């Protein structure tokens, strides 16, 4: 076997290096030729990631928070808009339970403030029906997004109703003999809220009760077998209203005595409705929150 001379060794190393550089050179050529496409894909990924994050943050703010302040629907000037109903007993929002008053008050501009001016959005909330046509609960924004180049969609399952339940006792009222008393969670009112809303008592899913007396701040409202399934308007004189401090909310105590044979059960709701709402509009279909899809679409302007 021959042995490379010292002069030949340099040639062999150079040849190996040249062979190794060929694929690297080809690779660099391919990269250079496709650089525009690579940069476009990187840019598209960055923009898509930014849209995903913006849409997700906006939806989480809307469905999981009550906004800032949490009663912005009363003040009319939120720094951050949120739609979750605020539970005063817990001092925290009920995530996924949308407040009907907030839903009625929220504007397109307030939601636009969440996503910024670089994007268009469309919000569509509809009831989930196994059969029949879905009912639209709320829409906001630009529904003409079919020609948009890239659209991000975020979907959540939420609960919503037409009217707001401010207090309730559900699935816990069970008659065991004689006349039984029940304490129902208190609900807040103010002088200003009473100018805008009425407050009703709705007894629903009654199974056996023949009569009931609901007391609001110790003022009695009587239900007989003839009207126990009908909503009753709470006289504004029964409510705690402070005219000298019209924005101050004060809690109203509620209790109930019910009579009926064993076993009897019912659900009871204290319902807040806009002034002038007819009693015929107040029923479990409009009061009990329903499962809804919360669809949020976002795209670049």
Q: How many angstroms separate the termini?
A: 74 Å
Strand content: 35-45%
Read across the widest sheet, the strand sequence of neighbours is 6-5-16-7
Broad shape:
elongated
- Spans where pLDDT lies below 50 across 5 or more residues: none
- As a percent range, the share of helical residues equals 25-40%
Query: Which secondary-structure class do the elements indicate?
Result: alpha+beta
**Main pleated sheet:** 4 strands, antiparallel
Rg, Cα atoms, Å: 32 Å
Average residue-wise pLDDT: 86
Tally of individual helices: 7
Order of helices and strands: HHEHEEEHHEEEEEHEEEEEEHE
Write down the domain tally: 2
Number of strands: 16
Structure description:
The chain is 29% helix and 38% strand. The longest helix has 30 residues, at 35-64. The protein has helices at residues 6-33, 35-64, 72-75, 100-105, 108-115, 191-196, 284-287, and strands at residues 67-68, 80-81, 84-87, 92-98, 119-127, 136-141, 152-160, 164-174, 180-189, 197-207, 211-216, 219-223, 232-233, 250-259, 265-274, 290-300. The radius of gyration is 32 Å and the shape is elongated. The model has no long low-confidence stretch (mean pLDDT 86). The chain is an alpha+beta fold. The chain has two domains: 41-162 and 290-300, no CATH class; 164-281. It has a four-stranded antiparallel β-sheet with strand order 6-5-16-7. A four-stranded antiparallel β-sheet has the order 8-15-10-13. Strands 9-14-11-12 form a four-stranded antiparallel β-sheet. Strand 3 (84-87) and strand 4 form a beta hairpin. The protein is built from seven helices and 16 strands.
């Amino acid at each position: 076997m021959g042995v490379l001379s010292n002069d030949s060794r340099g040639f062999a190393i150079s040849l190996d290096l040249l062979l190794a550089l060929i694929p690297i050179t080809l690779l660099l050529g391919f990269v250079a030729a496709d650089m525009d496409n690579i940069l476009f894909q990187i840019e598209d990924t960055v923009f898509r990631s930014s849209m995903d994050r913006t849409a997700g943050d906006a939806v989480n703010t809307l469905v999981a928070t009550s906004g800032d302040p949490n009663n912005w629907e009363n003040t009319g000037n939120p720094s951050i808009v949120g739609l979750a109903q605020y539970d005063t007993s817990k001092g925290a929002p009920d995530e996924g339970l949308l407040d009907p008053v907030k839903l009625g008050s929220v504007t397109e501009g307030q939601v636009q403030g969440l996503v910024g001016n670089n994007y268009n959005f469309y919000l569509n909330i509809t009831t989930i029906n196994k059969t029949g046509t879905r009912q639209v609960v709320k829409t906001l924004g630009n529904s003409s997004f079919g020609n948009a180049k890239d659209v991000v969609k975020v979907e959540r399952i939420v609960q919503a109703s037409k009217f707001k339940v401010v207090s309730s006792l559900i699935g816990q009222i069970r008659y065991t003999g004689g006349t039984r008393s029940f304490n129902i969670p208190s609900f807040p009112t103010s002088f200003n809220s009473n100018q805008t809303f009425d407050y009703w008592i709705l007894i629903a899913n009654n199974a056996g009760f023949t009569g009931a007396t609901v007391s609001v701040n110790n003022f009695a409202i009587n239900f007989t077998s003839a009207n126990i399934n009908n909503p009753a308007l709470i006289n504004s004189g029964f409510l705690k209203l402070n005219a000298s401090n019209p924005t101050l909310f004060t809690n109203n105590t509620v209790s109930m005595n019910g009579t009926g044979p064993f076993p009897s059960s019912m659900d009871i709701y204290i319902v807040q409705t806009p002034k002038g709402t007819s009693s015929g509009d107040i029923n479990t279909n409009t009061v009990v929150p329903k499962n809804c899809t919360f669809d949020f679409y976002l795209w670049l302007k």
